Amino acid sequence: MSGKTFLSLMLAGLAALGAWTWQQYLTEDKVRPRDPAPEILGVYMRNAVVISPGEDGRPLYRLEAGRMNQPLGSERVDLEDIVIEYSHETPRPWRLTADSGQVRLDWGNVVLAGNVIATAPADEGEEITTLLTQQMTVDAEAHQVRAPGEVIMVRGEERLASVGMSADLLAETVQLESEVNGRFLPLDP
């Protein structure tokens, strides 16, 4: 093989290698690997509002939460700084507040905890009835509220204490269950 032929083959080989390298450079993915995405542990909301419909499609209650968290794969939603206005089929809504709580994804039962205050509507000229407790469950579909522990019922200057309470939100009635202590004076006619 002559020197010219060898040099020509060498140049052709270098040109082919250069072309191949250039092709690899152009087709190579130029995206730099990013830091791995942070693991998502759930859904988090601040100042959230949920309006839960009743069977007839009308609002059953309005729930406001300063914070709402749902861990991934969980059937429950954790709530903080809660305000519920329950107004289904009544012109005067019940108002419930609590420090924290939980609700399942069907939004049927809401469990409230910590400084729970339930305010019952009152007719004009009547005293507002307020229920104070540390835990309460709202069964929105049955229009019922229950508290298993100590409950204080306040109406004007009058107070009753009991252990356990149930209330019918539609009938606007409250039933104290046991160890009732206190005195309510009859209303003046």
Write structural notes for this entry:
This protein is mainly beta. It has a single domain (42-182), classed as lipopolysaccharide transport protein A fold, CATH 2.60.450.10. Helices cover 13% and strands 54% of the residues. The protein contains one helix and nine strands. The longest helix is centred in the N-terminal third of the chain and has 25 residues, at 3-27. It is rod-shaped and about 125 Å long. The mean pLDDT is 81.
Draw up the topology in text:
Blueprint: H1 3-27, E1 42-53, E2 59-71, E3 76-86, E4 94-104, E5 109-120, E6 129-139, E7 144-155, E8 158-168, E9 173-182
Antiparallel strand pairs: 1-2, 2-3, 3-4, 4-5, 5-6, 6-7, 7-8, 8-9
Estimate nothing, just give the exact number of structural domains: 1
Q: Class in CATH?
A: Mainly Beta
* Residues in β-strands, percent: over 45%
Poorly predicted spans: none
N-to-C series of helices and strands: HEEEEEEEEE
CATH architecture assignment name: Sandwich
Protein structure class: mainly beta
Put simply, the count of helices is: 1
How is the main sheet built?
A: 9 strands, antiparallel
CATH superfamily: Lipopolysaccharide (LPS) transport protein A like domain
> What is CATH's topology name?
lipopolysaccharide transport protein A fold
Shape annotation: rod-shaped
The percent of residues in helical segments reads 10-25%
The tally of strands reads: 9
Mean pLDDT: 81
N- to C-terminal separation?
128 Å
